């Protein structure tokens, strides 16, 4: 069996001074800290002292993912590819602030979207996210067997993919996700069989004070 590793990378910090749940809205770009995070991961993955063989870097079409993936692809000497299946989860509250004070939850017209947190009722079902992400992982694995691939996506799709592949329930407390900005959730396969997972935070020292708004 050949071993293939698919790294699921979350993008870096986004410039979002208004605290908007930006979801799939175009135009949200990385903050300066976010660019630093992307460069840090690029250095980590291209470290010549570590035996790596990264064959491809593939990103969500959203600007923040593309900006995160660009220095990674450049450092590894590969062309940046795009896969629509890596996009952020759809969400009814996109474009709004989310909260009970001055946020969208103070308005009764939004309450009907909160009836089922297990689906969830306010956005793209967890099962649909798993389906598209799993297909992207499979295609990347099959195209680059015996090597490594970096897929740059978003917190919720990455975390849901991890829960699914580990056989855990998909509904969860968002505060307990292990998927920080610019982190790597690395899936290892022997042939087609999933054999292990590791989680690393190459930009951990840049996280204090980083915005977690929008769950990106």
UniProtKB/TrEMBL annotation:
Transmembrane segments: none annotated. This is Phosphoglycerate mutase. SUPFAM superfamilies: Phosphoglycerate mutase-like. PANTHER family: BROAD-SPECIFICITY PHOSPHATASE YOR283W-RELATED, PHOSPHOGLYCERATE MUTASE.
């Amino acid at each position: 069996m050949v071993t293939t590793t698919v790294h699921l990378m979350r993008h870096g910090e986004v410039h979002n001074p208004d605290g908007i749940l930006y979801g799939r809205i175009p135009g949200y770009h990385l903050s300066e800290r976010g660019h630093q995070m992307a460069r840090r991961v690029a250095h980590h993955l291209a470290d010549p002292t570590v035996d790596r063989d990264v064959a491809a870097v593939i990103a969500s079409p959203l600007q923040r993912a593309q900006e995160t993936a660009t220095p990674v692809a450049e450092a590894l000497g590969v062309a940046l590819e795009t896969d629509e299946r890596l996009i952020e989860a759809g969400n009814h509250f996109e474009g709004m602030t989310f909260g009970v004070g001055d946020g969208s939850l103070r308005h009764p017209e939004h309450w009907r979207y909160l009836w089922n947190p297990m689906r969830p009722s306010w956005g793209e079902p967890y099962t649909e996210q798993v389906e598209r992400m799993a297909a992207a992982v499979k295609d990347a694995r099959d195209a680059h067997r015996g090597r490594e691939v970096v897929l740059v996506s978003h917190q919720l799709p990455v975390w849901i993919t991890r829960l699914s592949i580990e056989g855990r329930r998909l509904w969860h407390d968002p505060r307990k996700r292990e998927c920080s900005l610019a982190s790597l959730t690395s899936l290892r396969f022997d042939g087609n069989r999933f054999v292990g997972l590791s989680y690393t935070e190459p930009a951990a020292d840049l996280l204090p004070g980083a915005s977690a708004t929008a769950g990106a």
